């Protein structure tokens, strides 16, 4: 059974402007430690790719926050929600701290997809009950 659905579209130019204005502090606010390392490596090799990476993570976290019905309020925080990837390359939600405890206590699981094209990054997230006994 579906718990919630969230979607988000993000203007990549807005993310680029925030990076220009606030520097790495902006990325540090949005990304987990693992994501930050990936962002730094991508940004060094190809700055545009780094901006796109940050935009897709921003968008996916927004979509997830909508799907769980909290928006950006506790226990949901930018850094407690990580967008990882499976060996196949499929994006996956990895949660940390209080958000993970809250999410697991509700018996939820999440599915996320991300995409980017020229000026926009978009994400879609479905959160469902993973334990049929919770219905």
From TrEMBL:
The keyword Zinc does not apply. Keywords: Cytoplasm, Fatty acid biosynthesis, Fatty acid metabolism, Lipid biosynthesis, Lipid metabolism, Magnesium, Metal-binding, Transferase. Its EC number is 2.7.8.7. Its cofactor is Mg(2+). This is Holo-[acyl-carrier-protein] synthase. NCBIfam families: acpS, pantethn_trn. Pfam families: ACPS. Belongs to the P-Pant transferase superfamily. AcpS family. The keyword Zinc does not apply. Residues 4-125 form the 4'-phosphopantetheinyl transferase domain.
């Amino acid at each position: 059974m579906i718990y919630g659905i969230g979607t988000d579209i993000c203007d990549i130019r807005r993310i680029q402007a925030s990076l220009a204005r606030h520097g790495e502090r902006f990325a540090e606010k949005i990304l987990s430690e693992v994501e930050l390392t990936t962002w730094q490596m991508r940004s060094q090799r190809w700055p545009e790719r780094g901006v796109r990476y940050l935009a897709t993570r921003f968008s996916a976290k927004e979509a997830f926050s909508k799907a769980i019905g909290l928006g950006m309020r506790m226990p949901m925080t930018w850094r407690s929600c990580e967008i990882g990837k499976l060996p196949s390359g499929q994006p996956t939600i990895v949660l940390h701290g209080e958000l993970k405890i809250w999410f697991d206590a509700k018996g939820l699981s999440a599915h996320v997809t991300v995409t980017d094209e020229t000026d926009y990054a978009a994400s879609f997230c479905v959160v469902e009950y993973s334990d049929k006994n919770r219905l």
